Amino acid sequence: ARPRVGYFYAGKNPKGIISQKIRSIKVSEIKAVPVVIREETSVYDAIVTLFLEDVGTLFVVQEDGSLCGVVSRKDLLKIAIGNADIKQVPVSVVMTRMPNLVTVTLDESAYDAARKIVEHQVDALPVIRPMEVDGKQKYEVVGKITKTTIAKLFVELGKE
Amino acid sequence: ARPRVGYFYAGKNPKGIISQKIRSIKVSEIKAVPVVIREETSVYDAIVTLFLEDVGTLFVVQEDGSLCGVVSRKDLLKIAIGNADIKQVPVSVVMTRMPNLVTVTLDESAYDAARKIVEHQVDALPVIRPMEVDGKQKYEVVGKITKTTIAKLFVELGKE
């Protein structure tokens, strides 16, 4: 007979329950608001935006709104200590560019996103949705998943 | 009668099982190796160390080995775009200093560490152990917990 108190998980150990939960949470439920800049933005202005918006990663879009790059604090720090005039150099010079970006879609799981962050050693992933521009396949940035998003989710799961 | 298949958790729902697991993992089990520099190190050398060691946060120690500060990519980026000569300025000028540091101990949990990271909006926590120097209470850095540590643990928990 099935016990009347508590819950019963047939054939599931605690590890199974935890991984099932982590894989059931969708990117769409946890994504944060991305800060986007244009590719003509100077490195200096990008750094100022980073501080004003208090984020670690900026997403770079083209005039049509499609994602073309990602720029991290690390990219900006590297050029800032060089001899370049960072008020003249555009972020397009230092950003990681499509199609080399690691991205995630709305229907992927929190687990998928965290795995990509860890495996590709990046701080943040753009959450993308396909968009067609003049017959070309491009991508719109509809959110971001960062290491902070994962840490917040972890804390949420740990609350009793 | 207790069922013979699967597991039975009296009075525990999935959320309880997950939070119990997250709170049972100790900092001592998951801590990573910290990169330490001396407080006399120049900002420029600190940035170079950051790239060479491929880390986001450096821990600053005094001559006796005790922790005196933490310096982040954000701190370094802020001074790098200023007019200071970063080869002359020591990191002690830009670091967050004891006793304003957010720290964690070996016996605290992964949950405690993640909560501190999220609440205090820091990238990394030094794992500290008390040490006595000339009758004064100081702290040794025996590890670090970063957002990356939490993301890796999250992925580990999500593996089936």
Summarize the biggest pleated sheet of chain A. 4 strands, mixed
User: Helix/strand-derived class of chain A?
Assistant: alpha/beta
Please name the fourth-level CATH homologous superfamily of chain A: CBS-domain
CATH class of chain A: Alpha Beta
Element-by-element helix/strand order of chain A: EHHEHEEHEEHEEH
**Envelope shape of chain A:** globular
Strand order of the largest sheet of chain A: 2-3-4-5
* CATH topology description of chain A: CBS-domain
In the residues of chain A, how many domains can be counted? 1
Which percent bin holds the helix content of chain A? 25-40%
How many distinct helices of chain A? 6
What is the chains' assembly state? homodimer
**What's the average pLDDT of chain A?**
92
Largest interface: A-B, 52 and 52 residues
CA-to-CA gap between the ends of chain A? Answer: 29 Å
Poorly predicted sequence stretches spanning 5 or more consecutive residues of chain A? none
Radius of gyration of chain A: 19 Å
Counting DSSP E segments of at least 2 residues, the number of strands of chain A comes to 8
Description of the molecule:
Two copies of one chain form a homodimer. Chain A is an alpha/beta fold and 160 residues long. Chain A has a single domain (25-158), classed as CBS-domain (Roll). Helices cover 35% and strands 26% of the residues of chain A. Chain A has a four-stranded mixed beta sheet with strand order 2-3-4-5. In chain A, a hairpin with a 5-residue loop joins strand 3 (57-61) and strand 4. In chain A, helix 3 crosses helix 4. Chain A starts with 6 loop residues before the first strand and ends with a helix. At the A-B interface, strand 1, helix 1, helix 3, helix 4 and helix 5 of A face strand 1, helix 1, helix 3, helix 4 and helix 5 of B. Strand 1 (7-9) of chain A pairs antiparallel with strand 1 (7-9) of chain B, so a sheet runs across the interface.
